[in-house]
Description:
Elements (H helix, E strand, L loop, with lengths): L3 H9 L15 E3 L6 H10 L3 E4 L6 H4 L7 E6 L2 H11 L5 E4 L13 E7 L6 H7 E12 L5 H8 L4 H5 L3 H10 L3 E14 L2 H10 L13 H14 L2 E13 L1
Parallel strand pairs: 2-3, 2-5, 3-4, 5-6
Antiparallel strand pairs: 1-7, 6-8, 7-8
Helix pairs in contact: 1-9
Amino acid sequence: MHSADDLIAEAAVADVDGWGFAYLDGRATEERPSWGYAGLLADAVASTEVAIDLDTGGGEVLGRCPRLAARQHVTEAWPPNAAKVRDLLGPRGVTVHEIAPGAPIPLPDGTADLVTSRHPVQPDWSEIARVLAPGGEYLAQHVGPASAFELIEHFIGPTTAQQRRGRHPDDETAEARTAGLEVVDLRTARLRMEFFDIGAVVWILRKCVWWVPDFAVDRYRDRLRAMDEIIRRDGSFVAHSTRHLIRARR
């Protein structure tokens, strides 16, 4: 294995645009939920007239679907990702909406048969309910509470009970019901993550900027070196992600 400083320096300038994770191949692993979101998404959009995928990233997940909705829309707030999704899905007739974070969903009331999202930033349940047609469905895989917190707490220190409660599926289903949606399916998973070199950790912290919001290599170099020592001693740094699948119907 290369030195810690070499691994850190290389990862500090690596491309983090889009929502692909090929950089981590052979360098980190994460278990996948048993429900297979990509397959559920492909089945759902293939039989849908009007669908919108929220926070689509670079369109990588939706782009794997063999057939899309007859009128397929996506939203994305980060300009580099919006450019990627236009290149990837524009040729397939997808309408790409580059919107500001927290902006309303760019569809009229009651026009969507399907709203989807893989790891939305902040699901706006009232907006989801507004754009869904009667009988329309929301299908999504959300990040759950305290996801990757072993890694996060290595850098920022202990978190509060309130912080660990964020994104709890019980809270989200209650919010969905308050917005007028019927939750018809909810499944949860806790999944093992392993990081096999410190470069993989630097890269993921640069990509998932909300994990350690003030992350910078120089600011956290001592903590990075301490984690590098753990990886070299134990073979990996282990954390756990949490996910939940949610289906809701208007």
